[in-house]
């Protein structure tokens, strides 16, 4: 499906928001390229985004396995850089719901009469399966295919990611991480360049986090297990914290929670017993009453389900051992 620029902008902004970041428009959102500022806590990035639909290569001269963005509708014959920011050149393949990112530094000159930038279909499909894929285009140029959940990570590591074309060794490590982040450990991520080594570690962590998030949210159909809300307000929460020695990224150590109940769960205000009942931590309530911070308790309690929503697949449900360990960790007066 070929989408209008406004639809492509909506896909981008929704991807950024789902990564937990905020958006400020720096120019009229009806005008392409789009200029945005994204921010969270004390971290912020200014971005200029050029984006088109990814379509099959043009005519019989190009292989059917090649996709491209056809660069049209610009007021200049070159990509304008974002001053003190980042310039993104993107394609969107709607059928697989993946982006392709191209290196601005390789396309910063005059564009010519009918310019296009290509990526092979194999890498778009790999990104659909694994979340991320790096396509070696030759001449030290790398195109990056990625799912929407990787959007902010792509922005943050933009320059270093596209530099992987300078080292075949580093690119091989990155490709291994993309195929399966669990196949390679921290001692095997040593790259020839420090910035690329940092990116490999970051990509590995982000892919593992995204896989956990996607599996858990899918298992619960994007419903908060404690109140049932969807509304794109739901997050994947670890039952046993991942920092704990027994914490894992298994789906059975995860639960889908809205932002309010995620925070309340992590703070020990509420917990799930071994029969899947949602319970309020009375010790925590007593502590809050003692400092006059218990307003809203009745409304908060009324919104909770008696039993959590359970995934239909038994192996995806919270493991009793995970609940037991988590309750031992969290049920303390803070």
Secondary-structure element pattern, one letter each:
HEEEEEEEEHEEHHHHEEHEEHHH
What is the number of domains?
2
- Count of helical regions: 10
What would you report as the Rg, rounded to the nearest angstrom? 23 Å
Distance between the termini: 52 Å
Give the helix/strand class. Answer: alpha+beta
| Quaternary form | single chain
Report the mean per-residue pLDDT as an integer: 85
Main pleated-sheet profile: 7 strands, mixed
The rough form would be described as elongated
Strand order of the largest sheet: 1-2-3-6-7-10-9
Ranges where pLDDT stays below 50 over 5 or more residues in a row are none
Q: How many beta-strand elements? A: 14
Helix coverage percent of residues?
A: 25-40%
How much strand?
15-25%
Record the SSE blueprint:
Elements (H helix, E strand, L loop, with lengths): L4 H14 L3 E4 L8 E7 L2 E11 L1 E2 L9 E5 L15 E8 L4 E5 L13 E5 H10 L1 E7 L2 E6 L4 H6 L1 H5 L5 H12 L14 H26 L14 E5 L15 E5 H8 L3 E3 L5 E3 L1 H9 L6 H6 L17 H11 L4
Parallel strand pairs: 3-6
Antiparallel strand pairs: 1-2, 2-3, 4-5, 5-8, 6-7, 7-10, 9-10, 11-12, 13-14
How would you explain this protein's 3D organization?
This protein starts with a helix and ends with a helix. It has two domains: about 5-215, no CATH class; about 235-330, no CATH class. The mean pLDDT is about 85. The longest helix has 26 residues, at about 195-220. A hairpin with an 8-residue loop joins strand 1 (about 20-25) and strand 2 (about 35-40). The radius of gyration is 23 Å and the shape is elongated. Helix 5 (about 170-180) runs parallel beside helix 6 (about 195-220). Strands 1-2-3-6-7-10-9 form a seven-stranded mixed β-sheet, sandwiched between helices. A three-stranded antiparallel β-sheet has the order 4-5-8. Strands 11-12 form a two-stranded antiparallel sheet. It is an alpha+beta fold and about 325 residues long. The chain is built from ten helices and 14 strands. It has helices spanning about 5-20, 120-130, 150-155, 160, 170-180, 195-220, 260-265, 280-290, 295-300, 320-330, and strands at about 20-25, 35-40, 45-55, 55, 65-70, 85-95, 100, 115-120, 130-140, 140-145, 235-240, 255-260, 270, 280.
